[in-house]
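Hello, quick one for you while I still have it in my head. Could you read through the record and tell me how the C-alpha coordinates relate to the sequence? No rush at all, and the record is pasted right below.
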Amino acid sequence: MDIISGKTWTFGENIDTDVIIPGRYLRTFNPQDLADHVLEGERPDFTENVQKGDVIVAGENFGCGSSREQAPVAIKTAGVDAIIAKSFARIFYRNAINIGLPVIVSDIEAKDGDIIKIDLANGSLINETSGESARFEPFKEFMLNILEDGGLVNHYLNKD
Protein backbone atom coordinates (compact mmCIF):
# COMPACT_ATOMS: atom_id res chain seq x y z
CA MET A 1 0.00 0.00 0.00
CA ASP A 2 3.01 2.30 -0.03
CA ILE A 3 2.06 3.42 -3.57
CA ILE A 4 -1.48 4.52 -4.45
CA SER A 5 -2.52 5.58 -7.93
CA GLY A 6 -6.03 6.63 -8.86
CA LYS A 7 -8.44 8.92 -10.64
CA THR A 8 -9.23 12.16 -8.83
CA TRP A 9 -12.43 13.69 -7.56
CA THR A 10 -12.00 17.33 -6.57
CA PHE A 11 -13.75 19.14 -3.76
CA GLY A 12 -13.45 22.63 -2.29
CA GLU A 13 -12.93 24.00 1.19
CA ASN A 14 -14.65 23.06 4.48
CA ILE A 15 -16.21 19.76 3.41
CA ASP A 16 -17.85 18.85 6.70
CA THR A 17 -18.92 15.46 7.98
CA ASP A 18 -22.60 16.27 7.47
CA VAL A 19 -21.86 16.85 3.78
CA ILE A 20 -19.82 13.64 3.65
CA ILE A 21 -22.62 11.56 5.18
CA PRO A 22 -25.79 13.43 6.17
CA GLY A 23 -27.27 12.70 9.58
CA ARG A 24 -30.45 11.20 8.12
CA TYR A 25 -28.38 8.19 7.00
CA LEU A 26 -26.79 7.51 10.37
CA ARG A 27 -29.51 5.10 11.45
CA THR A 28 -27.53 2.25 9.95
CA PHE A 29 -24.21 0.71 10.83
CA ASN A 30 -23.94 -0.99 7.44
CA PRO A 31 -20.89 0.53 5.69
CA GLN A 32 -22.33 -0.10 2.21
CA ASP A 33 -25.55 1.73 3.09
CA LEU A 34 -23.42 4.69 4.17
CA ALA A 35 -21.30 4.50 1.01
CA ASP A 36 -24.46 4.57 -1.11
CA HIS A 37 -25.08 8.15 0.10
CA VAL A 38 -21.55 9.51 0.58
CA LEU A 39 -21.05 13.08 -0.64
CA GLU A 40 -24.36 12.99 -2.53
CA GLY A 41 -25.29 16.53 -1.47
CA GLU A 42 -21.99 17.93 -2.72
CA ARG A 43 -21.62 15.79 -5.84
CA PRO A 44 -24.79 13.90 -6.84
CA ASP A 45 -22.80 11.88 -9.41
CA PHE A 46 -20.19 10.71 -6.89
CA THR A 47 -21.85 7.57 -5.51
CA GLU A 48 -22.79 6.32 -8.96
CA ASN A 49 -19.38 6.90 -10.52
CA VAL A 50 -16.71 6.53 -7.85
CA GLN A 51 -14.56 3.46 -8.42
CA LYS A 52 -12.20 1.40 -6.30
CA GLY A 53 -8.86 3.15 -6.20
CA ASP A 54 -10.12 6.70 -6.75
CA VAL A 55 -8.57 9.60 -4.82
CA ILE A 56 -10.23 12.71 -3.36
CA VAL A 57 -8.34 16.02 -3.69
CA ALA A 58 -9.72 18.87 -1.59
CA GLY A 59 -8.94 22.25 -0.09
CA GLU A 60 -8.64 23.38 3.51
CA ASN A 61 -10.38 21.83 6.51
CA PHE A 62 -11.65 18.56 5.01
CA GLY A 63 -13.77 16.58 7.49
CA CYS A 64 -14.68 19.47 9.78
CA GLY A 65 -17.87 19.36 11.82
CA SER A 66 -18.93 16.49 14.03
CA SER A 67 -16.69 13.63 15.02
CA ARG A 68 -18.84 10.99 13.31
CA GLU A 69 -16.73 7.98 12.48
CA GLN A 70 -19.13 7.07 9.68
CA ALA A 71 -17.71 9.81 7.43
CA PRO A 72 -14.35 8.16 6.63
CA VAL A 73 -16.02 4.71 6.67
CA ALA A 74 -18.47 5.85 3.98
CA ILE A 75 -15.66 7.28 1.84
CA LYS A 76 -13.48 4.18 2.13
CA THR A 77 -16.35 1.78 1.53
CA ALA A 78 -17.32 3.74 -1.61
CA GLY A 79 -13.91 2.83 -3.02
CA VAL A 80 -11.71 5.84 -2.31
CA ASP A 81 -8.13 4.76 -1.59
CA ALA A 82 -6.81 8.10 -0.28
CA ILE A 83 -7.71 11.73 0.42
CA ILE A 84 -5.34 14.60 -0.27
CA ALA A 85 -6.26 17.97 1.24
CA LYS A 86 -4.54 21.20 2.21
CA SER A 87 -5.66 20.48 5.80
CA PHE A 88 -7.93 18.14 7.74
CA ALA A 89 -10.01 18.44 10.87
CA ARG A 90 -7.96 16.62 13.51
CA ILE A 91 -10.61 14.11 14.52
CA PHE A 92 -11.45 13.24 10.90
CA TYR A 93 -7.75 12.69 10.22
CA ARG A 94 -7.45 10.33 13.18
CA ASN A 95 -10.69 8.50 12.37
CA ALA A 96 -9.49 7.95 8.79
CA ILE A 97 -6.14 6.50 9.88
CA ASN A 98 -7.95 4.33 12.45
CA ILE A 99 -9.95 2.64 9.66
CA GLY A 100 -7.01 2.38 7.26
CA LEU A 101 -7.81 5.29 4.94
CA PRO A 102 -4.68 7.30 4.04
CA VAL A 103 -5.13 11.06 4.46
CA ILE A 104 -2.37 13.24 3.03
CA VAL A 105 -1.79 16.87 3.94
CA SER A 106 -0.52 18.49 0.77
CA ASP A 107 -1.42 21.01 -1.88
CA ILE A 108 -1.50 19.72 -5.44
CA GLU A 109 -3.58 21.03 -8.31
CA ALA A 110 -5.92 18.50 -9.86
CA LYS A 111 -9.04 18.36 -11.99
CA ASP A 112 -11.68 15.67 -11.91
CA GLY A 113 -10.37 12.59 -13.67
CA ASP A 114 -6.65 13.36 -13.37
CA ILE A 115 -4.45 10.46 -12.32
CA ILE A 116 -2.56 11.02 -9.06
CA LYS A 117 0.25 8.80 -7.84
CA ILE A 118 1.01 8.87 -4.10
CA ASP A 119 4.11 7.43 -2.45
CA LEU A 120 3.25 7.24 1.25
CA ALA A 121 6.69 6.13 2.40
CA ASN A 122 8.63 8.79 0.48
CA GLY A 123 6.14 11.64 0.83
CA SER A 124 5.68 12.41 -2.83
CA LEU A 125 2.71 13.10 -5.08
CA ILE A 126 2.59 13.43 -8.83
CA ASN A 127 -0.33 14.41 -10.96
CA GLU A 128 0.47 12.12 -13.86
CA THR A 129 -2.01 13.99 -16.07
CA SER A 130 -0.49 17.46 -15.64
CA GLY A 131 3.02 16.54 -14.53
CA GLU A 132 2.78 18.67 -11.37
CA SER A 133 4.36 17.23 -8.25
CA ALA A 134 4.21 17.99 -4.53
CA ARG A 135 5.72 16.76 -1.28
CA PHE A 136 4.27 15.87 2.09
CA GLU A 137 5.63 14.49 5.33
CA PRO A 138 6.19 10.77 4.70
CA PHE A 139 4.21 8.33 6.79
CA LYS A 140 6.28 6.72 9.51
CA GLU A 141 6.64 2.94 9.49
CA PHE A 142 4.14 2.36 12.31
CA MET A 143 1.52 4.43 10.44
CA LEU A 144 2.22 2.52 7.21
CA ASN A 145 1.73 -0.72 9.16
CA ILE A 146 -1.64 0.48 10.50
CA LEU A 147 -2.75 1.46 6.98
CA GLU A 148 -1.45 -1.79 5.49
CA ASP A 149 -3.39 -3.81 8.07
CA GLY A 150 -6.60 -1.97 7.19
CA GLY A 151 -6.80 0.15 10.33
CA LEU A 152 -5.91 0.26 13.99
CA VAL A 153 -8.16 -2.56 15.21
CA ASN A 154 -6.92 -4.95 12.52
CA HIS A 155 -3.36 -3.88 13.25
CA TYR A 156 -3.65 -4.91 16.89
CA LEU A 157 -5.55 -8.10 16.05
CA ASN A 158 -2.74 -9.08 13.64
CA LYS A 159 0.04 -8.62 16.20
CA ASP A 160 1.69 -11.78 17.43
User: Anything to note?
Assistant: The first strand starts at residue 3 and ends at 10.
